[in-house]
Write the structure tokens for this entry.
Amino acid sequence: MLNAPDATSTRPYLLRALHEWCTDNGYTPYVTVLVDETVQVPMEYVKNGEIVLNVSYDATSGMTLGNEFIEFKARFAGKPREIMVPIHRVQAIYARENGQGMAFPTSHIRASDVTATAPAAAPRPALSSVDSSRTSDAQDSTDDSPTPPTNPTRPTLTRVK
């Protein structure tokens, strides 16, 4: 039957195929993701509930394009981050250079779909405040910083033949 109710989604297969097509042709694959609590991305880069991610092999490390999740490590502003995107949150995949790719429908996403497939998230570390008067006293008592020279000489370049 063509309309088998238990058939798996074609989305992960299409994502992998278009990612491979971009890579084989020297293009940079980008994915647009609809962000919610199940998406693990740097939230400071999310705009209007969406984020665009460079998923090229040059920009990622340890990437897995699975049937349920896209997982990889990437650097954002020099800081390494673990990225995990549920496949059903991917809105589009396209080549940065020419815009060719594919968009996916996102209107059918239900909360039950999200909670059924999302892995248990690890608790995130919390920040706590530090008394500023305590830290300045500690710095004053252990000031081991070197003093700058009083008469700095200007460096010169000597040419040796």
About this structure: The first helix runs from residue 11 to 24. Helices lie at 11-24, 111-117, 132-141. Confidence is low (pLDDT under 50) at residues 110-119.
